[in-house]
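# step 3/5: fold
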Amino acid sequence: MKLLHTADIHIGMENYGRVDPATGINARVMDFLRRLSDMADYAIEQGVDLFVFAGDAYRTRDPNPTYQREFARRIKKIADAGIPVILLVGNHDMPNVPRKASSITIFDTLEVPNVIVGDREALHAITCRRGQPLLVATAPYPLRTALISREEQQGKSLAELDTLLQNAMIENLQALAGQARQRSDVPAILAGHFSVNEASHGSEQNIMIGRDAAVPRSVLIDSIWRYVALGHVHKHQSLNRDAQPPVVYSGSIERIDFGEEHEPKGFVVAEIGDGPTTWQFVPGYRREARPFVTVRVDVREQAEPTPAVIAAIEQQRDLSESVVRVIVKLRQEQEASLNDREIVRALEGAYFVAALQKDVERTDRIRLGAVSVEALTPAELLERYLEVKKTPAERAKLLLEHGAALISAMDGASVD
């Protein structure tokens, strides 16, 4: 049995993009949609038996109708190929009150064939593409108001509420494992959208909706699960190394910002059979995620800062498909001579120029307190300067000795 696991598509992320005239949709949104199309093609062409989407279809809780249409088209394409699709509700899909519909509830309302919406903790008995039986436990993003009663929340601090929520999550996950254990003759997987204590977080914290809660990894490492498909954390990672069951964050399919510049983006394909579950990360099918490139240039020792920056840009690989930012480290007195227009012109071939950032080394003012400069000797001024610059003691002592010698020599020359 082969399953494709993905999460955190975030359709609606418009950062670093302009409207695509061919579609009328923001070009960065099209990046995310193309990646979803690629996964749909992979699922169909490679004979995937189950498609697991572990939450966060959209950027916001109230996506515009165009984005909903484009997401639905691609999900329907997978489902129409006879591949069951699990759509888990993430925090970006979830309403802020329990009884409102989520942004993906419409699939359930319309009873779209082969699409199961995981909007609550439940165990679903499904039949995969080739007729294989499978149990899928769904654990959507934990909504505090749904898991903790108003009475329990009364008078509690945020830390106490976090503990209550974590305990409720653990109880629910253990209950799902217990239900699956009652049907141990059928393989079972868990799909969840939440944080795990041991996970390494990424840029999802910059776009977080609501206060987060996490569970310990130990609660997920239950032998009843053949695979644990997680969403919510954008960085692809395995939390159980090579042990069973695999506990995997697929990661987001596209980069959200420069915090994810060096993170691989893709999806996971897992194989469940008679032996241990195997899985692999697929970084690109048809196309890779759009590159983000930071050009860092230190021109503090350069007489002409602008040509040095342009030379650093020209040394980069082809930037025509990249979102680019340039960070220039320079001295305060060089700032006026840095020609922004020429640097931006050198970046004309880039897909999108995110920023030209100047890291200016400001000259420290020596703090003299109530003492005037005239009241200090050259040696005392040097000592104050070294203090401000936080020069290590041994080096400061050496510099003061050399400084004293130079000052003495200069004084002698002045007398002559």
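# step 4/5: annotate
The chain has ten helices and 19 strands.
# step 5/5: archive (pending)
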